[in-house]
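for the recovery benchmark. tokens below, seq after
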């Protein structure tokens, strides 16, 4: 390998690595592979422009072009070598891009089966277009760099010239060709691209062979001087010297004049695109012209990167960075002016400008598909506001990334390359996090990782870190390796601090100083004559039936519901401690000798747009229904929305053959001793929006028979209502909303279930063994998915079991609690045996029941405790505490 080739490789290597990472990673950023593949040529072109300009742009930036031209080699050989290395580098990038797109096309989650034919067609056209725009970018980068000899200006011309021509020609062609033909327009565009490539290569060849690096008498051509500043500088009229702040701002305007010039050209092209879109829009919506015009606004997002990348790196390239530190202005003030200038104009030009232009086009009836598809048909809608804010926020982030990359590099092209790599890494981060969640990855006990906590700690930490690093990079000259090592060490230290502090807070490290569980009082109940604990009403109701026949009832509700109207307290409680608390009466149902009871506490929001008017909260208690040991049927004396009325019960009828009652929503299902089933209630069933003015009650509803069979033996709840016949068969009771009546469907796989000890999809058999279904209950519909039950272990000393969303908790006959976590519960259903682990430290438990939020256990002293299930609450700032939540003491109720 000749020294000339080595020199060209070293010259292109930094930009080539950045572009390689960009193009190989682009197909994997978007979640929609159709859009990703179709928009691939546009973003591929943006990356190749950087590589194309770098070939001669760095020669002029480093001042080595003159040395290159005086080498003892013919210009023909120099041209061929430089062109060969550039084309080889571009070919390698294209190969990586092609392979990455192909893998993305064939390996996409959510798209099983063969690849659709239309997507394969789009892929072939996208790759053909990508190869074409690669040559367009290479040819454009060569002639613009050789003509203008300034990297930033060459980058802008290379980027905007083909984009402007493509937008104009693709839209104008649709007016010439009627009806518009995609094939004809595509052939015309490829022909024009070929002419541009040939002409650009010829012009670059001519400029290189006729290049003369000598001074001339026509003056200095520089885009970094504005006519106004130049006129004032040469004026013979005396004037006051500008103050330091004004001088710094003037310097920044001069430094970024190329970017402002590019913004002016981009504005003119964007207005032209909007004009053509509004008045010459008779093109097919899937043509290349529509793609260009719909995503033309994305070019504005290049401006924050360019303004940020120019801020520091170009001053170092021009050799004025050291001299300005000798001025009578502190380095901190210089950095502040530079940072605010970059963020302001980067946000204004990169975020505000495209938002203003596209929203104006939307009002004029010429919306882009991207804006129109994000809820911007009505600009006052919430999706519209969030989408526009996201664009502005993205511009702020890009400007910040650009200026940080500029403090680490020595020229504009390197800064832009580094900024692109940083942006791509930031785009990959959410995809990587999603992969970790799918793989159940655990880091320092964070699973699922509390991303809100990481953001609350990480955002200010990273902002402060990068502000400090950028200022240090700007104000302290150090050799490159030392600067990079310092920045890398700072970033790794910040990441370690973020994850470490998050782990300490999330895992509630202070809990190690607390006892494992609060102590229990003296025992009142025993396992020999223990009370029963039920959780009906969608898993939120709690009923404890004492041995003497009294029934204590309560209900669970999220703690933050108690802070209605105090949104900050709701938010704090929801994020820090979202454990449900006692929200019901916490009292005994009037009377005693109860054998079967049912209660229901409701709390929900009525949606907007309901027939009755505005949305609002509905909170209240439905009828309390119970059956006494003498077979009589009782109901609460009245039904009121908020007040629990079970403290006063009245008898219904004179019959004494009632046996059991369960509840299904507004309906109560009852069983008589003669084996017949009955339904009761259902007033304004499902009309939740009328509940605040017309509270439902079963007091005035008739008792209706369910079917004609008289061979039913018992009822039990398992997410839905089930009834067992005298022959042992189990049937599921389903409510038909069209007829308003219940029907029974055979559920043969539940025939062996012992109703009194059944919970979810597990039960304790009569011989004391624990049985688990081969499939869990469907959490969305509460319907069973399994067909049979499998024994768990060989022990036969279980008394009861409760299952809360794949979390199994069982009670032994010695009063201890044991659990199988979510990870092993599924393998238990496949017949894989796992030993349980001890839950808690006490050994005086007498009953347990499953709820939506976890498992509730009853201690021998009458206290109720909730063991929260982490899978039933949303990600919080803190892990749920290891101690169970005290709900109250049954014996303390009146």
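predicted aa per position
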């Amino acid at each position: 390998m000749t020294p000339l080739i080595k020199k060209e490789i070293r010259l292109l290597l930094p930009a080539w690595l950045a572009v390689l990472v960009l193009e190989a990673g682009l197909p994997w950023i978007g979640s929609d592979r159709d859009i990703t593949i179709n928009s691939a040529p546009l973003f591929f072109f943006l990356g190749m422009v950087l590589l194309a300009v770098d070939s001669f742009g760095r020669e002029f930036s480093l001042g080595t072009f003159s040395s290159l031209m005086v080498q003892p080699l013919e210009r023909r050989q120099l041209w061929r070598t430089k062109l060969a290395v550039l084309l080889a580098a571009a070919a390698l990038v294209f190969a990586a891009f092609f392979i990455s797109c192909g893998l993305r096309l064939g390996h996409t989650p959510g798209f099983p089966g063969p690849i659709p034919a239309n997507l394969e067609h789009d892929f072939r056209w996208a790759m053909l277009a990508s190869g074409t725009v690669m040559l367009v970018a290479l040819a454009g980068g060569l002639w613009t760099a050789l003509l203008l000899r300034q990297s930033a200006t060459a980058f802008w011309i290379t980027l905007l010239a083909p984009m402007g021509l493509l937008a104009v020609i693709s839209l104008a062609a649709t007016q010439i060709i009627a009806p518009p033909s995609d094939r004809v327009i595509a052939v015309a565009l490829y022909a024009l691209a070929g002419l541009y490539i040939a002409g650009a290569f010829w012009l670059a060849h001519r400029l290189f062979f006729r290049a003369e690096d000598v001074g001339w008498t026509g003056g200095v051509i520089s885009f970094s001087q504005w006519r106004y500043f130049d006129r004032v500088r040469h004026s013979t009229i005396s004037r006051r010297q500008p103050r330091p702040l004004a001088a710094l701002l003037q310097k920044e305007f001069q430094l970024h004049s190329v970017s402002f010039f590019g913004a002016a050209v981009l504005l003119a092209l964007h207005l032209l695109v909007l004009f053509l879109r509004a008045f010459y829009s008779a093109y097919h919506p899937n043509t290349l012209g529509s793609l260009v015009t719909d995503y033309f606004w994305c070019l504005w997002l290049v401006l924050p990167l360019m303004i940020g990348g120019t801020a520091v790196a170009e001053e170092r390239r021009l050799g004025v960075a050291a001299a300005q530190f000798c001025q009578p202005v502190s380095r901190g003030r210089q950095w502040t002016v530079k940072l605010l200038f970059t963020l302001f104009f980067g946000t204004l030009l990169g975020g505000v400008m495209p938002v203003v232009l596209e929203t104006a086009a939307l009002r004029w009836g010429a919306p882009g598909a991207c804006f129109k598809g994000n809820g911007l048909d009505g600009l006052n809608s919430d999706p519209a506001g969030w989408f526009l804010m996201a664009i502005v926020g993205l511009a702020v982030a890009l400007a910040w990334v650009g200026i940080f990359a500029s403090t680490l590099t020595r020229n504009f092209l390197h800064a832009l390359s580094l900024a692109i790599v940083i942006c791509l890494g930031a785009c990959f981060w959410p995809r990587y996090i999603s992969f970790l969640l799918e793989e159940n990855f655990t880091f320092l006990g964070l699973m699922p990782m509390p991303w809100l906590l990481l953001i609350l700690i990480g955002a200010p930490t990273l902002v402060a870190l990068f502000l400090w690093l950028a200022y240090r990079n700007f104000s302290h000259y150090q050799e490159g390796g030392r600067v990079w090592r310092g920045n890398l060490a700072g970033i790794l230290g910040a990441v370690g601090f973020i994850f470490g502090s998050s782990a300490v807070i999330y895992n509630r490290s202070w809990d190690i100083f607390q006892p494992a569980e609060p102590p229990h009082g003296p025992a009142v109940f025993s396992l020999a004559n223990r009370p029963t604990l039920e959780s009906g009403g969608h898993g939120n109701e709690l009923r404890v039936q004492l041995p003497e026949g009294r029934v204590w009832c309560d209900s669970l509700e999220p703690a933050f519901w108690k802070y209605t109207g105090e949104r900050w307290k709701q938010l704090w409680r929801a994020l820090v401690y979202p454990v449900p608390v006692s929200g019901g009466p916490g009292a005994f149902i009037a009377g005693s000798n109860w054998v079967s009871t049912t209660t229901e506490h409701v709390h929900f929001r009525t949606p907007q747009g309901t027939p009755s008017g505005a949305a609002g909260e509905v909170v209240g208690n439905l009828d309390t229904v119970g059956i006494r040991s003498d077979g009589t049927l009782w109901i609460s004396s009245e039904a009121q929305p908020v007040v629990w009325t079970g403290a006063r019960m009245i008898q219904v009828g004179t019959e004494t053959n009632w046996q059991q009652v369960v509840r299904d929503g507004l309906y109560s299902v009852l069983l008589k001793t003669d084996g017949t089933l009955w339904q009761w209630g259902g007033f304004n069933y499902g009309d939740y929006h009328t509940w605040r003015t017309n509270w439902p009650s079963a007091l005035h509803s008739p008792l209706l028979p369910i079917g004609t069979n008289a061979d039913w033996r018992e009822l039990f709840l398992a997410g839905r209502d089930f009834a067992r016949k005298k022959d042992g068969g189990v049937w599921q009771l389903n409510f038909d909303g069209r007829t308003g009546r219940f029907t029974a469907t055979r559920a043969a796989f539940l025939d062996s279930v012992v109703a009194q000890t059944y919970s979810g999809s597990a039960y304790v058999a009569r011989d004391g063994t624990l049985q688990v279904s081969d499939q869990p209950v469907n959490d969305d519909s509460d319907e069973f998915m399994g067909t049979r039950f499998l024994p768990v272990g060989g022990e036969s000393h279980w008394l009861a079991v409760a299952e809360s969303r794949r979390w199994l908790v069982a009670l032994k006959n010695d009063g201890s609690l044991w659990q199988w976590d979510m990870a092993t519960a599924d393998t238990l259903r496949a017949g894989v045996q796992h030993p349980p682990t001890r839950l808690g430290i006490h050994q005086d438990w007498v009953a347990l029941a499953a709820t939506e939020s976890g498992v509730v256990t009853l201690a021998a002293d009458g206290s109720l405790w909730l063991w929260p299930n982490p899978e039933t609450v949303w990600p919080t700032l803190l892990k749920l505490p290891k101690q169970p939540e005290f709900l109250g003491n049954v014996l303390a109720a009146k």
